[in-house]
Amino acid sequence: PITSDTGISRSQFASISTIRFLISSLIYFIFGKLCQKTGIRNLAVIGMLTLVAAFFILSIGSKEAVYMFYVGAFFWGFGSALTNNSVASTLVNNWFNKNNGLILGIILAASGVGGSLFSKIVANNIDKFGWRNSYRISTIPIIIAAIVIFVFIKEKPEEKGLLPYGYTGKAEEVSTTEEILTGITVKEAKRTFTFYIILFYSFLAGILTNPVYVSVPAQMSDKGFGEIASTTT
Predict the structure, then answer these.
(1) Each residue of 109-162: pLDDT tens digit?
(2) Pair 129, 137: CB distance under 8 Å
């Protein structure tokens, strides 16, 4: 819908994804430091507000102002990096010392279900209100989520006088969640073969998935499928 309406080329529009993923990958390198300085809750709220700005900027892009798409992509990459699964996994590790994997799995499953449902909603919005308004409408649930997180989320159970779920030690031994974490250090992890296997797997997964799901809707549209069917897929 965007390329048809504005007249920009597919390659120009594809650059949005390139910029987005590039910015996100750079932010990931300093994600840990940002968490320490800003706090995971504040970081998530900042990320969501950045996404709101990104979608509004993308909604005013045009062939004459194609650079607005690239500016929006920059903010999109920045915001998505601050609201990714790393936020959820950090909170889970803070609050749960038992069944971490199960809890995180449930959360990620919810993310998949939410993505499936909202894909349909966004597709209907594009069909009824146009892609520009669809971008703007999509900011509403993001703003609501940001407010809920800021008001209700506590980064650590100690903030409410609690201990992490499953912690079996003495309460006086816990001053910060980091003290009860187990495992190896990052320096030690980098010396293992497993670390590089996981890194290589993640690299391949990025190559195989991201370019595909970004380009499939446009290909389906070319084949004659409607906007709703293409976007929902």
Answers:
(1) 988 888 888 888 888 898 899 999 999 999 999 999 999 999 998 988 888 888
(2) yes
- List the one residue out of 112, 104, 61, 53 whose CA is nearest residue 77: 53
Q: What is the pLDDT of residues 41-99, one digit of tens each?
A: 999 999 999 999 999 999 999 999 999 999 999 999 999 999 988 888 888 988 988 88
Q: Using a cut of 0.85, tell me whether the model's pTM lies above it.
A: no
CA distance linking residue 43 with residue 125, whole number of Å: 29
Q: Could you give the CA distance from residue 42 to residue 46 in angstroms, rounded to a whole number?
A: 6
Q: Secondary structure of the chain: what % helix, strand, coil (to 5)?
A: 80, 0, 20
User: What DSSP character marks residue 96?
Assistant: B
Tell me what the pLDDT averaged over the chain comes to: 86
3-class secondary structure per residue, 141-205: HHHHHHHHHHHHCCCCHHHHCCCCECCCCCHHHCCCHHHHCCCCCHHHHCCCHHHHHHHHHHHHH
